[in-house]
Amino acid sequence: MFLSKIFQKHFPPGNNTSLAKRTITRLLEWSFACGICIILIFGLLCLIFPLPDKIEYSTCILDDQGQVIHAYLTRDQQWRMKMETSELTPLLKKSILSKEDKYFYFHPGVNPVAVVKAFFGNMIHGRIRSGASTITMQVARALEPKKRTWFNKIREIFRAEQLELKYSKQEILELYLNLIPYGGNIQGVKAAAFFYFRKNPDHLSLAEITTLSIIPNRPSSLVIGRTNERIITARNKWLNKFRKQKLFTGKEIEDALREPLTATRREAPGLLSQLSLKLKKSGEQNIVTHINLNTQFKLEKLVADYVQASRLKNIQNAAVLVINNQTHEVIAYLGSANFRDTVDGGEVNGAAAIRQPGSTLKPLLYGLCMDEGLLTPKQIINDVAVNYQGYTPENFDRKFNGYVSMEYALEHSLNIPAVRSLHMIGKDRLIQSLAACGFESVKKDQQKLGLSMILGGCGASLEQLTGLFSIFANQGLYFRPSFQQNDQGAASKRILSPAATYMINEILSRVNRPDFPVNWQATSHLPKIAWKTGTSYGRRDAWSIGYNQHYTVGVWCGNFSGRSVPELSGANTATPLLFKIFNTIDYDADEQWFTKPATLDERMVCSETGLLPGAYCKDLITASFIPGVSSSKTCNHLQEVFISADEKTSYCRTCMPLNGYKKKLFRIIPPEMQRYYEENHIAYQKLPPHNAACEKIFGEEGPVITSPTSGFEYLISKKNPEPLQLNCHSSNDVNKIYWYINNRFYKIAGAGSRQFFVPQEGPVKISCTDDKGRNRDIWIRVRYVDL
């Protein structure tokens, strides 16, 4: 044996080893063997009976000052709030250890001296009067509550040793403070401090700490709010003990003795219910938000009053989100006007709900077009009827405006120029930018989305839209909005250039716009902000998103039921509330505005097209542009044309006579604009018909059929067949159009006019020939169905 060999080395047999020495050797060997067995048995028991230390804590939502604003019961219906290490103050630690376990840092989980004293004391009295429980043993009992018996006391000792092996002393102390019972369903110092004193543990006074330290010993007889006088007597008794132990100064003790106890159990807080439910899904115990309660309460009152007045128009709800543009933190969050409102589903989180965004995506689209060099603010876009493979968008007022600048189109939120711009840049470019800004539904449905997405034909939430508009306040950089203080802030993403965002800001901050609220009082203060409105199809959603240097505010108004309201619009419903919010949170910020970036410059352009002036441009204006990016295309809307002396015939260079002609400037008007002028009876200078004897015109492209759409299948009701529309674009020297159906002549019509016909079932060939002999053919398929 190992110990025997060691003893024989120092005490060989020749030295007449005494019996005492042999006895000591055997005892040492026996002790070593027992120790090994105990260790093995303890390890085996730990494997068989693992420590039940999986503790569920209440989820607590805190404001930016660390105050609990919402809390949730655990699954076993307990208020068990986890105390952070930073909340364990020296005052709290000293008081608890002095009262409960003075030798906590010196014993291995069990205090042998206390156990012996308790054993003999209980034997003398014939019953259990003292359990000699250390803080570690009390944690063990809280983890596995059992009746007070000798067997269960042994179980506690075993669990205490498991705890000592697994956790540090500091961690065990924190477990104790998180698990001690306070009567009812309140467990832990943090929960008790909150429900009784509305304080965090690190703000408790000596009197309050002493009060909380004595209740766990008698939770059924010492109940705060019912037996406060009895609690004060017990508290003062312990305070006097602390005085004798010289644990605290005399003044600290005297102050604690004089402190009254008026506490009672209070209700659990239920503020910011929608945001709290959203954040609770993270699974964390203490979630610290950026919510500023002062701002939050002001906006809740403002929104409640505003919606109360709007209910006369059958508009039942609103949602608001406020982002601090410097920190990218969400400082106010209203999912609905009233969480407890049962009329229109007040529990719905309108800030996170996916709804149609209306026209709110147009600023991003135009910014992208400017960064791609496709547009500048003064550049002209045609606002006339257009057809993209059967998709024919309309403006909100169902009218056309002819030639408009990009800035005019954005100011007036025109639909057709926006669709043209999206067709020009491609929907994938817009989808890519939206996906980078957290538009998950757009990313998910990207294969289904078409040009209509720029008019609201996609899904977006107020959270996403408000985060998107914050890029205009951050020089085109997107920062994911932060909802809680331990967010791992993602790196910023470049969505637009500083130059493009500045140009958008200048356009959206103008007040002479049709979406300026008509009901905004002239005497009301108008904040200096940039904003964009949106109204979804069917008038179910009204949006207004605004921003300045300090804040980005998103507002949604409508009904969670999806009810359509004729009076609902972004301009007159959501924008007045937006203005009121900015006047509440940032009233004196009018003089501060965005600085023009060095990458933006100005140049002279043609007022007719917004392009660089050509040889014949006379009327010039100043326009912003991005050097090296914006198009350098030269204006050619005026062209010199050879015409006869009587101005009745035009010539090309092929058929131009040797003499008897003259040159004249004509504005080149595309066919779609010619039709707009004629439908609206607007006079314009027509190009004289081309020389009929010229053979070149027969080699040029013919008219373009815009309706019906080539290659499409049309379903027509058998009971009520509706005719299909015939329409085409032709050059401005064309007067007559000849229509053919399946190679049979159908009708003669004026250039730009619309005709209608009822087709036969099956494949249909449609031909269009102009008065110059140029032709265009398309094929469609027609099927009659029971509709």
Overview of this protein structure:
There is one protein chain. This protein is of the alpha+beta class. It contains 22 helices and 27 strands. It has a five-stranded antiparallel sheet with strand order 7-6-14-13-12, sandwiched between helices. The longest helix has 30 residues, at 19-48. The N and C termini lie far apart (100 Å). The relative contact order is 0.07.
Q: Helicity range of the residues?
A: 25-40%
Mean pLDDT: 87
Largest sheet: 5 strands, antiparallel
The tally of helices reads 22
Structural class: alpha+beta
Integer-rounded radius of gyration: 41 Å
> In which order are the strands of the major sheet placed?
7-6-14-13-12
Low-confidence stretches: none
Summarize the topology.
Layout lengths: L1 H9 L8 H30 L11 E3 L5 E4 L7 E2 L9 H11 L11 H14 L9 H9 L6 H17 L2 H11 L6 E2 L1 H9 L8 H9 L13 H17 L5 H9 L14 H8 L5 E3 L4 H18 L6 E8 L4 E6 L27 H10 L8 E4 L18 E4 H6 L3 H11 L1 H10 L3 H5 L17 H8 L7 E2 L14 E2 L3 H11 L21 E6 L5 E7 L3 E8 L11 H16 L15 E6 L13 E6 L12 E7 L5 E2 L9 E7 L3 H9 L24 E4 L5 E5 L6 E6 L6 E6 L2 E7 L4 E3 L4 E9 L4 E11 L2
Parallel strand pairs: 1-5, 3-4, 21-27
Antiparallel strand pairs: 1-2, 6-7, 6-14, 8-9, 10-11, 12-13, 13-14, 15-16, 17-18, 17-19, 20-22, 22-25, 23-24, 23-26, 26-27
